[in-house]
Specification:
Blueprint (H helix, E strand, L loop, with lengths): L11 E6 L3 H6 L7 E5 L9 H17 L6 E6 L7 H8 L6 E4 L5 H17 L8 E6 L2 H5 L1 H5 L5 E6 L6 H6 L11 H13 L4 E4 L8 H14 L3 E4 L5 H7 L4 H19 L5 E3 L2 E3 L1 H22 L1
Parallel strand pairs: 1-2, 1-8, 2-3, 3-4, 4-5, 5-6, 6-7, 7-8
Antiparallel strand pairs: 9-10
Helix pairs in contact: 2-3, 3-4, 11-12
Amino acid sequence: MARPDAKTPLRSLLFTPGSNEKMLSKAATSGADAALFDLEDAVAPDMKEKSRPMVLQAIKETAATKGGPPVITVRVNDVTTGLLEGDLEGIVCPELDAIKLAMTNTAADIRAADAILTRLEGERGLEASSVGIIALIETAEGLYNCYDICKAAPRVVGIGIGSAEGGDLSNALGCEYSEDGQTLLYARSKALADSRAARVPFPTDGPYTRFKDPDGCRADAIRARKLGYVGKAAIHPNQVAILNEVFSPDQERVAYLREMIEVYYEAERAGAGAVSFNGRMIDIAMVKDGERVISFADAIATRDAG
């Protein structure tokens, strides 16, 4: 395994409680792009330390399963709990790709986790910075500091925005849930813009908690995708296929973009800087955006074929 890079699809990240052996054993067959084992909120306080070896075993079994999630992550407890170092000591191994750091409030939180990971990678013979960090933005302070958080260490590969209904971020902001997403629009937009400015490849949205409402899940995911998020957390296996579909480029769109790009470059070779295509004026900025989408679609196709 290896720290995910910009070409890694990360459309769906399925939360699995770290204290539930039955659910841990099913993570490998969920179809999610990432297994997300949880040592934080989904685990009762008296089970947190006991869950570490269970999660370690699940990491190894999931990595060994053919066709399992290509990315393996663990949500660990935040810096202020006193549990972070123990969590990392219990789970860092060659098969671990990234951690999700709960309640990331400042760049100092990232540096603290980075220092522990650096020590453990050295002690355990792992490649330096092989374990990535996805920073969870779940507080007003974390939202304010999001850009600095993203730039705090090279191993930061993504953010997760705490957009769940009634979650920590909503509580911190004092906002009410709205099905159209308007009450958290600024928070989602700021976190997305900060992560993009910091060139972090994986801005991911929070989970849709109404797991028996597939239409609501789809609508929430579409809103996140339109803002620029590349994926979304899931709290139930039945959400995975929806997220994989929503965050995958539509094949008709890909075909349209391929034709558009071909037409543009033909015009460019003829000396034109912009060209008309299907009633639109196309320039190099639109071509670059199209190439980004096609690259992502190709990465999904290559991985699925392999």
